[in-house]
Design goal:
- The complex is a heterodimer of chains A (99) and B (353).
- Chain A has 99 residues and is mostly helical.
- Chain A is 68% helix and 0% strand.
- Chain A has one domain.
- Chain A is flat and about 50 Å long.
- Chain B is mostly helical.
- A two-stranded antiparallel sheet of chain B has the order 1-2.
- In chain B, helix 1 crosses helix 12 and helix 4 crosses helix 9.
- The chains are: A mainly alpha (99), B mainly alpha (353).
- Chains A and B meet through helix 1, helix 2 and helix 3 of A and helix 3, helix 4, helix 5, helix 9 and helix 10 of B.
Chain lengths: 99, 353
Amino acid sequence: MRKLWTKILGLGTLISLVLPGIALAAGGGGAAPVVIVSDTRKLAGPFAWWANLYNESHLYFMIATIIIIPLVGVIFGMLADVVMKHIGIDLEHRDLAEH
Amino acid sequence: MDWLYVLMPISGVTIFWPGLIILGVGVGVIGGFFGMGGAWMVTPGLNILGFPMAFAIGTDIAHMAGKSLISTMRHGKFGNVDYKLGFIMVFGTVVGFEAGAQMIMWLERIGQVNLVVRWLYVLLLAFITWMVFSDVAKRKQKERAAEAAGKELDKLATGLEWHKTFHKIKIPPMVHLNVAGIYCSAWLPIMVSFITGWLAGILGIGGGLIRMPSLIYIVGCPTHVAVGTDLFEVMISGLYGAATYTYKGRVELVAAIIMLCGAAVGAQVGAVATKYIKGYGIRIAFGCAVIGCMISVLLKLVPMYFPVIKPVADVLATWVVLGVVTALTVYISVQMFKGAAKEVRQKKAAMGR
């Protein structure tokens, strides 16, 4: 058991030491474009509002995002429930329980 | 044909939106079935569709949170989710994820994000492939031995049994995980979740690809419970990841919602399919998915050293990802529809009696 933990710790240390090394040794390469301000000139309607929200406050933009995503998920999930039940699939039980 | 393209408000790139829906359906089916976010398909997929890598990672995580919520709702109803285990793992997942996300921002600043992410992917995928198939081979060996002895192998028997060694660690507090049927030190799931969360943050994935096999082979969960519990974790880490990547300006919500339209349907099909396919069937299909993913990532890596083959390798990588997604989606969907049709027939027959 001690040997296993030593190996795991050793591997973890190796990865954390080697990763930055790989990155630095490779050198060069272009960074992904970092968008600080969204270009709203070509946008209209909800898209323009959304891009403006991003430009005005990253915090509000983040809060709106994490509210919208689960909300959309729950709505779609409930709709699918209705459809599945209509088809006649049992959504409460599963017979198979093996590994 | 301009109507087939939509201008993304934050990243400013124009994207072929039906491609997003198709990607959403495929990843929904596969994710709901294997208990993972499916970022290994979505991140390169979004990159292929035209998103810069950093946006591909953030957008993928955002869509994954919504899709995993749909799948978790479904798996929860089947009794596949060990919520106690899920909540224990949340802390390690979130702390590990933040550590990984900070690391990726640093790598991005020094301009090597693509190279490091892809090499780490390949190493992990190779290890997972080996783990899954050696497990399957060992179980087959046990089956043959039992057959030769004229016995029948226990249905709960597994090939690799590393979890038994890990369960010998008795550092308090000890916990009973009733749904998974495990009694172990709470530190085991916490450490597993921290390490998988850290890797997830670096790779820009929900962590299912790593966490699902970890739950099976290290924590010792039955396959179905590993799938359901992992989706619960992917949902939490996906939401946290969406928040952190959005705050850093790396999420394109419009693309995430378009993908969710397809993923919502796919996630239901995938989750319901676990009702009809046996545990080892899920593991073998998972292993095949991992191999496909590894080949596609390798095809993106090799041209970094041999630029002359880049055009061919790019096309091949696209075909491999699309091929794997299509093959698995078709396989899972067919199994799901066959199983559902059989169930409906049996119900009708029972009602007719």
